Sequence to fold (693 residues):
Amino acid sequence: MSVLVLPRALDAPVDQLQDIGPKYSKLLAKLGIKTIRDLLLTLPFGWETYVPSQISSLVPGTQASVIATVVSIKPVVTPRRRMRLVEATVADDSGAEMRVVWFHSPYILKHLREGDRVAFAGVVDKSQFRGRPGMVNPQHERLGEAGETAPQRVGGMTPKYHLVEGLTSRKIAGWVELVLPLAGHLEDLLPPEVRERHRLLDVADAVRLGHKPASLEDFAAARKRMTFADLFELQAAFAMMRASIAAEPATPIPFRQDVGDAFKSGLGFELTGAQRLATRDAFRDMQQSVPMNRLLNGDVGSGKTAVAAACAAMTHAAGMQTVVMAPTEILARQHLHKFRTYLEGAFSDLKVELLVSSQSTAERRRVRTSAASGHCALVVGTHALIEDEVEFFNLGLAVVDEQHRFGTRQRELLRAKGRGRPHFLAMTATPIPRTLALAMYGEMTLSVIDEMPLGRVPVETEVIDPEHRDLAYDLVRKEVAAGHQAFVICPLIEESETVVARSATAEFERLRKDVFPEPMRMGLIHGRLKDKEVVMQRFAGGEIDVLVATAVVEVGVDVPNATVMMIEGADRFGLAQLHQFRGRVGRGSATSRCVLLADDPTDKSLARLELVARTSSGFKLAEEDMRLRGTGELLGSRQHGLTDAAMDALLQPQLLDDVRQEAERIVQADPSLNGQPALRAAVVRRLELTSIS
Fold:
């Protein structure tokens, strides 16, 4: 179907476009592209430049485009591996020939025939066939007679879009071509004076030049404008959130020295200097009528929960309640144990309850009644806490752990459980460099716990060549024989034909059968498993010796008896994520080991893993992860709704400062953004809210 050039078409779903049905709309949704507006605003992340060339001048390993005639084309089955491919011989006007091969593309035989004049664009194969150059899986476009038609879709500058399996950049570029006439109807969220001060393109020109630039300079200008706009929208949202929080008062929670002393005496260990500083920051905030809105950013095992428990104790002493929300039941149950340990012994009248969806109806009803009547001081739970039926008698403090796992709306629903606005404390175990944290969580004040508790022994980390995997197995056997337990992490749940990586299910079966047979007890856990909590409880209870797992155990798993973390496909994880896995061991008094094995042990991947092995600080690894892989790898750019360019720009302090000042200037002059409807609409979308009060 054709696209109507009407403003309202911008918010039409992409499946209204030609050739986009349910299949492709689902794939695009994985990239955050649900509407025509999304398609227009999602620029390529880069460009391939294919230099027009004659076959005789092709250089192996370079990108080039060639216009040639198909001399022969046929299906081929390789004799050794029985792979099916399409092979063609093509010749340009000089008579020079080139071999072209397509794997897994039988449809090529329907599109191309002998005598067709075709434009090809791709990487020149480094291995020549019978003395001729070649290309593997090149882009191609059929042309008319010689001199009649120039290629329109291949050669020159070709966009590179982010993809998922089943999509190609060429498909996305074709859909963009259909909707590009709508670019002129996009509302510009950047005020004219801001664009003028920073010499930025308007949104229509940025979109046109971003998708179809005449030069790399055009693309750079478009990317600069879109980057600024992304950050501006985010900082405007932060400014409005700060103003909204300040406008709705909280009940001050006074500091009491006797409560602090009782809490510390009941802990059984000394708080670190960083923990004491973070606790003082929170106590100072909680004494104000402006609600606390603080982010507690700490390394694995740095003791964030103890800080939250201290705040809960002070809240209870003021006659108010605390709620703690975690992203998984595994983590919620661990928090339940820790909060009870830290609080119930020191304060006889302080009761901690659990609310999760797996509980019986009667148990959930009992906990809801206890919270609503004020008979419990603290409720720990998962998303079950934000259900409509859950109420609190007098909520004074809301705590969210792994706060990046929750959307803005979910956090607001939790805050709304109080009669007034409760104080708010967010925690994250992903160490985030301070500048990035301030940029990504600009509506919050920041506390950093960068000091480990006394007696915490660093985990010994070693990179092992996959050929010497038996050394890792021997280590697991030795530790299990000594009464300890081990993790084996795999990057996938099930086998994949397209990715070389050990899957959790296949590896579990192989290890159980060939490597760790009975009497060794094994378990399997992954995100699709219904009984994750049951398996985790069995592991924590010592009923499982070796737990094969995916990234579901990245955070919140606390099993002091586990002393080995063996990570398969370690090169497929980010440095910060590997550090999170490593933090699952070394929680007891015994020496612990982390073993890293690469699926693709190149010099580059091994160098990254060696960096993990010699660096124990999560903050240093996070900074290195940003440098090597970009900020999107650390926090997830899709998750935060930022483009790659905007995520990378978070490393530019001056740009961030400029954007923040511009956003604050606009919001101060127009707190509800009524005079900036485009910006207001964008902020509403970003905050996942239906309106801004």
